[in-house]
Amino acid sequence: MYNPENHIYVIFGASGDLTKRKLVPALYALFVQKMLPEKFVLLGVSRSDFSDDEFRNRMKEAIIKYKEIDDESQIDKFVKKLFYTPISFDDEIHYKNLLNKIKSLREEFGTNGNTIFYLSTPPNVYGIIPQRLTSVGLNKQDDGWKRLIIEKPFGYDLESAIKLKDLLLKDWTEEQIYRIDHYLGKETVQNLLVTRFSNGIFEPLWNRNYIHHIEITSAESIGVEKRGGYYESSGALRDMVQNHLLQVVGLTAMEPPSSLEASAIRNEILKVFQSLRPFKKDEIKNNTIRGQYTSSKIKGEVVKGYRQEEGVNPESQTETYAALKFYIDNWRWGGVPFYIRTGKRLPTRVTEVVIHFKETPHFLFAKHQMNNSCNMLIIRIQPDEGILLKFGMKTPGAGFEVQNVNMDFHYSDLTNQRIPPAYERLLHDTMKGDSTLFARTDEVLEAWKFLTPVLECWKNDKNVPLLGYPAGTWGPEHADDLIEGDGRHWHYPCKNLADDGVYCEL
Ligand code: BG6
């Protein structure tokens, strides 16, 4: 295993939720697997006033609670590498202190000048922190590389994303900036590339000649939990579609890259985004659905509606469900509809890509054929990660009854293969300087360009209603109407990939 060069990892927002749930447990998992450099220091930075020891104890608890790896034996050794310094994000003096702290850690641990700054902070300080770091020279690479990791959302719409880009690129280069989209860190999302481009059997069919339509779903059973404040200014379109779902669209629809170089892969994703057919104002009503969950009973328990959640306006117009139908205007996909949907408080947590192939040109068995019996390839991103192919088979016995059967592969069948969590993979890539699985500025801007008209229309046009749906259901009542064609509807997934009958475990 190639180990990254020695460095200091600085996390802004170190007292926050993401640090304790994902970042530090992932760094610990890397430590246990000996994937950290020999000389490594983690410096937590945020507004709270902790001592090093208090920070270490909090992180120790987090590693145990949010366990990413089954080995607690090395926690004490790991937390010795953790340090903390409080900061007020926009106070210049504090950055001088930060610089001194970094310098003294460098000397003490011999990590040299390589430094990563991870912004796990509220988005309103994504501009100011890099500026302040620049003011004390912490963007300069003469004594070692400096990298800036930025969480989503990168901007709020096209205009604000352009502003943020201009601000950052004044002092930092594109190569120094890593925009995290944790979906790209998921093993099964990366497997989209491998499935498509390492098999001779799929690629010839992967186009408008054989594919009828493509569906991408990312359903969550949880509500907004304690994030009402953030979610109110975001909504499902900004929170999930602009980043995660469009990246999955990119990997599903892209042309084969010329190599596995970061720029080759990102160029192909960018081309897909550039080919997204822009929505005209009057098309948005018929091609998008927005919904918001209302209070209901799930498994006998009363569940709050979105408007009753903490931090949410009781008259909120924020969508917790979004579904879109759109086209990719290029040679491969001309005329093939893409449908994507995401929502909170749906019946189960599932992310999957469903490729619906066209019907056979002549239906020999038409009399017996059930509706919707065309071949489907389901790429399950989570949970029960795997791939399922559905095809027609003769029911044994007289005549020619056709039944749908499944051919399935589950990742869980691979013994002794640990699926590394997304953040573990991505943090390690930032240490190695590999930006393949990070969104580039131009991709992010194209994604905003595509969605900003929808955001504006949803905000201003009262003809596109915000529809309520009871928590625990598959979204607004008429969500199936978006899918064109007689009897067609969304694929309703179950917890287990291969269980897709009427009754299934959710
Ligand atoms: C985050 C969103 O980016 O992704 C959350 O902000 C969402 O609202 C989460 O719950 C979903 O991620 P995953 O990995 O659980 O599908």
From TrEMBL:
- Residues reported in the UniProt entry to bind substrate: H182, K186, E220, D239, K344
Q: Which residues does NADP(+) bind?
A: G13, A14, S15, G16, D17, L18, T19, K20, R47, K152
Q: Which PROSITE patterns match?
A: G6P_DEHYDROGENASE
Q: Which reaction does it catalyse?
A: D-glucose 6-phosphate + NADP(+) = 6-phospho-D-glucono-1,5-lactone + NADPH + H(+)
**Catalytic EC class:** oxidoreductase
Gene Ontology MF term list? glucose-6-phosphate dehydrogenase activity; NADP binding
Residues forming the Glucose-6-phosphate dehydrogenase NAD-binding domain are: 10-191
The record's listing under InterPro entries reads: G6P_DH, G6P_DH_AS, G6P_DH_C, G6P_DH_NAD-bd, NAD(P)-bd_dom_sf
Which Gene3D superfamilies is this protein grouped with?
Answer: Dihydrodipicolinate Reductase, domain 2, NAD(P)-binding Rossmann-like Domain
Put simply, this protein is called Glucose-6-phosphate 1-dehydrogenase
Pfam families to which the protein is assigned, alphabetical: G6PD_C, G6PD_N
Biological process terms from the Gene Ontology for this record are: glucose metabolic process; pentose-phosphate shunt, oxidative branch
Catalytic residues, chain numbering: H244
Question: Whose protein is this, by species?
Answer: Ignavibacterium album (strain DSM 19864 / JCM 16511 / NBRC 101810 / Mat9-16)
Q: Which family does it belong to?
A: Belongs to the glucose-6-phosphate dehydrogenase family.
What are the entry keywords? Carbohydrate metabolism, Glucose metabolism, NADP, Oxidoreductase
| Enzyme Commission number(s) of this protein | 1.1.1.49
Q: In which pathway does it act?
A: Carbohydrate degradation; pentose phosphate pathway; D-ribulose 5-phosphate from D-glucose 6-phosphate (oxidative stage): step 1/3
Top-rank taxon: Bacteria
The question of whether Cell membrane is a record keyword is answered with: no
Query: In the UniProt record, does the keyword Glycosyltransferase occur?
Result: no
**Role noted for this protein:** Catalyzes the oxidation of glucose 6-phosphate to 6-phosphogluconolactone.
Q: Which GO terms describe its cellular component?
A: cytosol
